Amino acid sequence: xxxxxxxxxxxxxxxxxxxxxxxxxxxxxxxxxxxxxxxxxxxxxxxxxxxxxxxxxxxxxxxxxxxxxxxxxxxxxxxxxxxxxxxxxxxxxxxxxxxxxxxxxxxxxxxxxxxxxxxxxxxxxxxxxxxxxxxxxxxxxxxxxxxxxxxxxxxxxxxxxxxxxxxxxxxxxxxxxxxxxxxxxxxxxxxxxxxxxxxxxxxxxxxxxxxxxxxxxxxxxxxxxxxxxxxxxxxxxxxxxxxxxxxxxxxxxxxxxxxxxxxxxxxxxxxxxxxxxxxxxxxxxxxxxxxxxxxxxxxxxxxxxxxxxxxxxxxxxxxxxxxxxxxxxxxxxxxxxxxxxxxxxxxxxxxxxxxxxxxxxxxxxxxxxxxxxxxxxxxxxxxxxxxxxxxxxxxxxxxxxxxxxxxxxxxxxxxxxxxxxxxxxxxxxxxxxxxxxxxxxxxxxxxxxxxxxxxxxxxxxxxxxxxxxxxxxxxxxxxxxxxxxxxxxxxxxxxxxxxxxxxxxxxxxxxxxxxxxxxxxxxxxxxxxxxxxxxxxxxxxxxxxxxxxxxxxxxxxxxxxxxxxxxxxxxxxxxxxxxxxxxxxxxxxxxxxxxxxxxxxxxxxxxxxxxxxxxxxxxxxxxxxxxxxxxxxxxxxxxxxxxxxx
Amino acid sequence: xxxxxxxxxxxxxxxxxxxxxxxxxxxxxxxxxxxxxxxxxxxxxxxxxxxxxxxxxxxxxxxxxxxxxxxxxxxxxxxxxxxxxxxxxxxxxxxxxxxxxxxxxxxxxxxxxxxxxxxxxxxxxxxxxxxxxxxxxxxxxxxxxxxxxxxxxxxxxxxxxxxxxxxxxxxxxxxxxxxxxxxxxxxxxxxxxxxxxxxxxxxxxxxxxxxxxxxxxxxxxxxxxxxxxxxxxxxxxxxxxxxxxxxxxxxxxxxxxxxxxxxxxxxxxxxxxxxxxxxxxxxxxxxxxxxxxxxxxxxxxxxxxxxxxxxxxxxxxxxxxxxxxxxxxxxxxxxxxxxxxxxxxx
Lengths: 646, 346
Prior knowledge:
- The complex is a heterodimer.
- The radius of gyration of chain A is 25 Å and the shape is globular.
- The model of chain A is unreliable at 1-5 (pLDDT under 50).
- Chain A has helices at 17-27, 32-38, 42-71, 81-115, 124-142, 171-199, 212-244, 257-274, 277-291, 298-312, 327-339, 341-356, 364-386, 389-395, 399-429, 435-461, 478-508, 549-552, 596-613, 616-634; strands spanning 12-13, 565-566, 573-577, 584-589, 641-643.
- A three-stranded antiparallel sheet of chain A has the order 3-4-5, with no helix packed on it.
- In chain A, 62% of the residues lie in helices and 3% in strands.
- Chain B has a five-stranded mixed sheet with strand order 3-2-1-5-8, with no helix packed on it. Chain B has a three-stranded mixed sheet with strand order 4-10-9. Chain B has a two-stranded antiparallel sheet with strand order 6-7.
- Chain B starts with a helix and ends with a helix.
- In chain B, 41% of the residues are buried.
- The chains are: A mainly alpha, B alpha+beta.
- At the A-B interface, α4, α11, α12, α13 and α14 of A face α1, α2, α3 and β7 of B.
């Protein structure tokens, strides 16, 4: 340890009181509102992502409940067709963009440095910037709905229906610009995650010792970075078509509406994997602690995760099997869609085997994870059915597909997320969540979900199309819609119990020990909640399961050292490590609190608002103001910098 | 147990009213033609396999939870001891090859089905041009070589039983999707390209269809019906459709025709109506020359009865908000007479 080649050689210490106090002061935020707007603490960013995305989940859920009331009976006219179309559009946009990915970014931001044994992410200010952009773009996407100007052509937003000829109002412009705005957050966030994984792990955490949760988030973020070009291109093209009369999609001028569908699904399908892979990795990470054994085939699961993302870029046409593409081309995409089942099956078999050969403890978290496995299989096999081109000609755009996506997105994402919250809440807050309320929470959500969404398969098999604001009687769709509405409300009550449990546990929960589940990774070595500096001394990692390695005597050569290490106490210091071996090769000086991220995010918002209203001077002023803002951001400061060796 | 029940109950609930399959005109589990039957077989097969996989995994999880409770030591803190556990890799070593074989078999079945239904069994004698509008279906019957046997109708597609029919799909505006589940799978109707599909009805009867690609405000109300008739009856229908509308006889209907020509003809065609100074040749809405030969109005959503017809003529916006048909400013007399006229268009 002594020969770490950096600009100074930190001495090896066992941290004492005064050292920790010094660190705590150094890493704390400024008090009050100044601290609120200038913090770059990854734990605060993570919490804000979690809370904000959950608020969006509740809003999207409310929209769903209104739609379910309308669909409770045939020929119901409680809300108008226009409002229904706005609601289903915003429901999709909210859940898919504003909930599903940001909630996982929340877990990632809070947990990555803790799991990696570090003090922060690679670029703390960029990281904070991604949150502000997410928040502002989420508000931006919602400015239309309250005034009746929400987009009403679905999150898939097919042209020419979304073009200016058939949709002259501002709704689609809000959507197009809002998504471009939102993806700035996604792209920047991906860079932060990827750089952190590559260069900011604890010493000794070689590539084979990186815990599985990191892999899921990392894979998703690499995938997102590859999806950025097509999403930005397609929404920019749409906006140019609508506002400047370009002809990307206009048939009369040589454009084609299929261009939209290809570009949209080239990003849209990888996006689906990006919002489930990190959730699956939450299960892979947490399930073993509740089963009292390591995950079966963990390296297989990691490889399968990566393979899923790679294959995920080659299946987009399965959203377009009914568009009249050549049969031979559809055959290839159908085959790819069957093949992608295989890596998913790896995860399922690994989880089942872990439960089978372990000793499960029936915690609320475990219940959610076990349910996730079963719901994943239901969503998986219905996806497998839609992969068969001719069968998909019947299934597509019916409620069968609605059932499928909800089993995938709620089953894999929401159930894993809630389970993950029960698992990590003690770390987030220092309080245990109530297991008694957890019992109610789980069973209400699980029963409500299946009562609500399983009949949708049948509604679909009985031929009910998606995206209809009402339906006639006499086609056999009535009873299953009634059951679905009832189930949706039971599910909503379950979510309500969850929110109540969170709020109540924050106030009155039992105090949490450092490691309540006897789990394996480094976040459980710090106190609950962790101190601002995370780790007094950066751990030296010896295996994939630092807290279990002694008891399990895994086939690892290293030994994790937690209680002594190099003193990094000159400003925001942490180690930069090499990609493969995790050897420390530099001491990073991380930037502290700053207003630059929120200023840049606000200027971006100004730019997009100007573009939406076509008040170009506002956009221009915002862009010009970004120059001094960037200077402020990058202004050299004595406590910020990356000191190389020597 | 609760979990299993919550999954099995809806299936049981499906089977109970399942005695009345005939009441389920949109299900594609029971089909009636060579373009749809292989799809249904594939559907039953893959659904069966899916249910089997689901039950296997669900029971594995449940049994896995239960079996681990025995013979597991406790640690000093009183919780089940952390252990390396038994080797779980056989789950992957057996599960993956079995999955791959099942997937491969499903893929092969899929490709055979795809090859089988992508072409009709024989070259169709009849080709229809179906033009999708927001939110109705224009249907043109073509007789190549005999131009005078071409005519246009709407929302009701008559076909001969036992003969394949080719359909050319044209969009007048946005993307729609053409689907009658018991006869054929979906084919999107996309501006800028003409998609072609085919189907064949094996039995005489009425089949329901509906647009399934979201196409705007009234996407929910864009249905159609396929009426399969014995070939002789079908050709008789075709010949009848070629005829111009008869001149109205009753004074009310004669007055109704005048009202129609002044208020409706700018959008609707009635072949043979009107005189030298004014013709009913509008193309915006459905051709009404043989309106009374159709069982439904408003794109398959309302039965073609006097009451609904009058309500539709008077205030279509109330029945289908946003439809192109405006609210007509007619007196009671005009309304009754124009309905009387429309009802002569058989």
